[in-house]
């Protein structure tokens, strides 16, 4: 939970200070106002409106179908539910293919969506965009390792097909070195934090130790400066169990039970019950009946 030194609103510099003090950062995705409110009350530091909204909420096949409009819409909802957490909006696929596009779309997510910062995937290829956004005063988080937008398929479909979580990055020395170099370049470009997705624990530790900015891991082991999960996985809504996630509640099963119970009660006439109905004033029904009978 936030301590007495925690600011009323989480800022990028507070997150860097947490790393410096050896305090872990807890982040979660959020796509709607009530979930964002719960997450905020639980003291989560970052509410990430990830492009995972596409597969988790919108029924899309992959992250590549998510638009800036989608992210802006969900960011507005999350913003309304959050008082303390930093609201981070994902720049979706193709929305930062040039410096101009990145500035325009990040600006929209901040001004129209109410985001506190944006996240984009990639290393060297997105350095010009990253530098331009940082120069414009936009807080930017990087994302390395498994990058669903450029892999062109969602992790869930992939893992279901293979029965295992695939695409772990940084398993050998050359790959881990590449990851470290890319991470350093992003830090140099001014990102305030870095998501590491599906990275071998040792490689993620190396990167975390080398950077001043915090690393936020998902499937990147225990040595990152913070962790992020997809809220639907944590709450047991997505129906898939991934090695990288932990299911803290099984709300999907609970919801399915509740929906069936409702249907059965409606069909049996058990719902609504006396406690769910509204009545006319005493005597009014009888009076109306008499009036109607007299008219016939
Ligand atoms: O879109 C998303 O949810 C993400 C997380 C996996 C970090 O980018």
Major pleated sheet: 8 strands, parallel, barrel
Distance between the termini: 70 Å
Decide which structural class fits the backbone.
Answer: alpha/beta
Q: Could you tell me the number of beta strands? A: 8
Q: Uncertain segments of ≥5 residues (pLDDT<50)? A: 153-165
CATH class of the largest domain: Alpha Beta
Provide the helix percentage.
40-55%
Approximate strand percentage = 5-15%
**Mean pLDDT across all residues, rounded?**
93
Overall structural domain count = 2
Number of helical runs? Answer: 13
CATH topology of the largest domain: TIM Barrel
Instruction: Based on Cα principal axes, name the global outline.
Output: elongated
Provide the succession of SSEs: HEHEHHEHEHEHHHEHEEHHH
In the CATH hierarchy, what is the architecture of the largest domain at level 2?
Answer: Alpha-Beta Barrel
List all distinct small molecules, including ions and cofactors, that are bound in this structure: 3-methyl-2-oxobutanoic acid
Radius of gyration from CA coordinates: 24 Å
């Amino acid at each position: 939970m936030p301590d007495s030194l925690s600011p009323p609103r989480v800022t990028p510099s507070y997150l860097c200070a947490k790393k410096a003090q050896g305090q872990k950062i807890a982040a979660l995705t959020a796509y709607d106002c009530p979930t964002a409110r719960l997450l905020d009350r639980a003291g989560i530091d970052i509410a990430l409106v990830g492009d995972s909204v596409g597969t988790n909420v919108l029924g899309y096949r992959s992250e590549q179908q998510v638009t800036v409009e989608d992210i802006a819409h969900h960011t507005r909802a999350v913003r309304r539910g959050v008082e303390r957490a930093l609201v981070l909006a994902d720049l979706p696929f193709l929305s930062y293919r040039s410096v101009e596009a990145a500035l325009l779309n990040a600006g929209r997510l901040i001004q129209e969506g109410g985001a506190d910062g944006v996240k984009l995937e990639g290393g060297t290829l997105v350095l010009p965009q990253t530098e331009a956004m940082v120069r414009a005063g936009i807080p930017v988080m990087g994302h390395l390792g498994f990058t669903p937008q450029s892999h062109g398929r969602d992790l869930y479909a992939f893992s279901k097909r293979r029965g295992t979580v695939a695409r772990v990055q940084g398993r050998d020395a050359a790959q881990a070195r590449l990851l470290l170099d890319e991470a350093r370049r992003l830090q140099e470009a001014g990102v305030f934090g870095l998501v590491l997705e599906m990275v071998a624990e040792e490689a993620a530790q190396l990167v975390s130790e080398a950077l001043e900015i915090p690393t936020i891991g998902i499937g990147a082991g225990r040595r990152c400066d913070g962790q992020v999960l997809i809220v639907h996985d944590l709450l047991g809504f997505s129906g898939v169990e991934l090695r990288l996630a932990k299911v803290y509640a099984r709300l999907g099963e609970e919801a399915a039970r509740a929906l069936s119970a409702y249907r059965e009660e409606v069909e049996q006439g058990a719902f609504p019950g006396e406690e769910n109905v509204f009545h006319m004033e005493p005597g009014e029904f009888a009076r109306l009946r008499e009036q109607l009978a007299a008219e016939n």
